[in-house]
Amino acid sequence: MSEINFDEMQTVLMTQFGEIIKDNNQVKLDVERRYNQEKQQATDSYNYTAKEIKSQFDSDTQAINNKNRELSSYMNNLSICSSKSKEKISYIFDIFNIYPSGESFVQKNRAAIDALKSYFNQADDFSGKINSCINNDKKTVKSLLALFFIEFFFLWIITGTIAKFFCYLNRIDDTLWILSAAIFSFVVSISIEFNYIFTFYLKPKKYYSHILQITIEAKEIYNECVQKADQLIKNEERLYNERMAENEKKHEKRIQTIEDNYENIRQTAQKEFEAKLAELHRRISAYKQAVDTSSPRWDDEFWQSWNVASKLPDMIRIGELTTGRWNGDKSRIKDCQFSMPALLPFPSEQGILFSINGEERNLIAKQLQSLLLRLTASIPPGKLRFTFIDPVGLGQNAAAFLHLADYDESLVTTKAWSEPRHIEQRLGELTEHIENVIQKYLRNTYKTIEEFNSYAGELTEPYRFLIINDFPANFSEDAVRRLISILQNGPRCGIYTIIICDREKNMPHRFDIRNIGRHTRVFHSYENENQLIWGARDFKCLLSLDEPPAQEYFNTIISQVGKAAVAAMRVEVPFAKILEKAGLSPEAWQRGSTAEEIRIPLGPVGANRVQFLELGKGTSHHALIAGKIGSGKSTLLHVLIVNLALTYSPDEVQFYLIDFKKGVEFKTYAAHALPHARVIAIESEREFGLSVLQDLDALLKRRGDLFRKAEVADLKNYRRKTSQIMPRIILLVDEFQEFFTEDDPVAAKVSQILDRLVRQGRAFGVHIILGSQTLAGTYTLARSTIDQMAVRIALQCSETDSRLILSDDNAAARLLSRPGEAIYNAANGLVEGNNPFQVAWLPDEERDQYLDKINALARQQNFAFPQSQIVFEGNAPAASSNYRAAETFFRLAGRADCHQRGDCGAVPAAKRQQSGDCRARR
């Protein structure tokens, strides 16, 4: 892709579109809210005013009516001479003062009110007099009553006594006479008091006529007031109607003003919205053109002359986005509709989940091939790996991409996987890869694999895509847990997951699909449209995935990428670059000391670190190397030998090189007379190899004698105590399995000596490095011996060999995907000791140049090897002169002792093979 930042462009356009729609909707809501609020306020104000007018009218009329009724009641019940007449008359007058608009009423009816008041005052005066009379007469009545009883009693006594006496004289019955006396006394007493009682009723009579007249005139004035009150009520009704009409008019005017303002604001907002939309359409058109130029549609002529990508893309084109009104989004503006290419950022922070119905799976699976082909065409060859899981289609959904396995199986993890146990294994491998990336590469230095790759140079990690069809079919609970872990941690480690999930299927026990949704970009299928719902931050739209291109273009892309991947996957980290990183400048060549340990660089680890081979310290004394053909094992051995010769002088380290292969890997060291090499065996025979081991076994004994004399236990203390240089010995055997191809005495002797060298050699500075293509086989080195070799270096190999060279539970080497990629393990192969690295690349020409420089350094230092160098070539014709030279060397070597310039070993002459050439180099 071009330098255009499509991620930013798409984000900006989508954000702008969302903001335009959101702002427009917000403006509409604000305007409508304001319109409704103002309209409601006007209506509320209108209703409130109307209510106030009505309330005032009702209050006034009700008060008038109520007081009229009270006045009428008081007037009708006005009792002349009542003890409460004064209060009633005063209250009647107060009624007129509290009428609504009472003050106005009093002013207009002052004369009548004054007259009524005068009448009421007179009535009050008369009532007072009457009340006074009544109060006085009440006392009189009481006196009269007492007097009556007194008169009656005395009269009865007197008359009764006279009657009784009369009857006594006449001797007649006195009962009738006594009763007659009582009646007589009562009649007389009543007659006496009648005058007073008559006077009580007639005395106030002269006042009653005045009060009656006043009452009559008051009623007339009352009737006049009632009539005027009725008129006042009519006036109130007229005033009420006028005020209501005025309120209605104001309300209508205010509503019209509000509607006019609303329409003006709405039109202004619509114009602004249309202007923004037009500008957005212009930018989208430019964006479309840029995308079509950088990532053309499948039907573009560009693909007829397409070449593989050279750098990573920023975005991956997946389809077309369409916006506008649709059932899933009610907030869309009717006329706001456009389409634009749909791009996904790469690398992404999330995986992808297609949540579909079962009926749509075939269509989505087909369209997914378009997305995967885009990835294949957009990512540089060799930087992309696929892992296909297809439990229902059994590989049919990945068939088009499995052609990549014809070029390199690691491009598609060999095949598509469908069985539950295979699914768990593949997910386990990806989880293991994530652990390795986090712990070995990223650590706390890099946030993501992209940041790491920007510094890693040749060691950039490829991007891996896990493609899962028909989830959750054949997924166990363990597999689901691994998948969640991959979704959580995979993106930052360069592992991205694409899942097609049938939401109608039953999910595994105790699993919630939302756990996947939290770590993925979710696309839901849209009903009856063969489209998906694209959910963005501020808006949603429809996504139509691209259909795959014509089969011709499809196959062409796969073929070209596969071919290019084979070459691109070859990683070559220059040997000189590793020397520089390790601080091994020419000034430091051959200045190292092996008194403490051997430490040489092998290749880079991650972006900035270097992996060293370390022997002679702790438990790291011997090394086992394994890798299949083409894994880079030979290159590793050359790097190891050359780095040893560059770091240390021949006084510090000496080699015994044995190569059992049908090749000439070590011949260059003989040709260049590598001063560090004591023995160089090319295409060696087993018997000669045994001779070398016997020589080293004898060397152990000689050094043992020296150490005992010096009273030391190891080489480090020997050199410290004697100040004598004693070189460390490196026995390097390539394809050491050849020792054990036959079950014979040679194999038994080799196994015995090797076990002794491995167990005892560490104290005497003898280090064994064994290399092989495989450790599998009926006859091999004893496991107990292998267990004593703490350092394991595994290159590309099978799972079985990975478990053999590392440990039973360590199959990490099976995941190595390119030549030279290796695992350095100094923990007897335990998983926790795995340290992946890349073997430095040392071409033959460059290697020979370094050998020349090594020889030049030896000459500058006037180095003179004390004994002859033995070179055995199993494929060379016999030469008697060489035999004689070798025999002389063996004889001298047998009597040689250890001195300050190095060790002399003996290879018995009897072990020479007539089929080869063994010569001594002076």
UniProtKB/TrEMBL annotation:
PROSITE patterns: FTSK. Residues 607-804 form the FtsK domain. It comes from Candidatus Electronema aureum. Residues 241-290 form a coiled coil. Pfam families: FtsK_SpoIIIE. Keywords: ATP-binding, Coiled coil, Membrane, Nucleotide-binding, Transmembrane, Transmembrane helix. This is FtsK/SpoIIIE family protein. GO terms for molecular function: ATP binding; DNA binding.
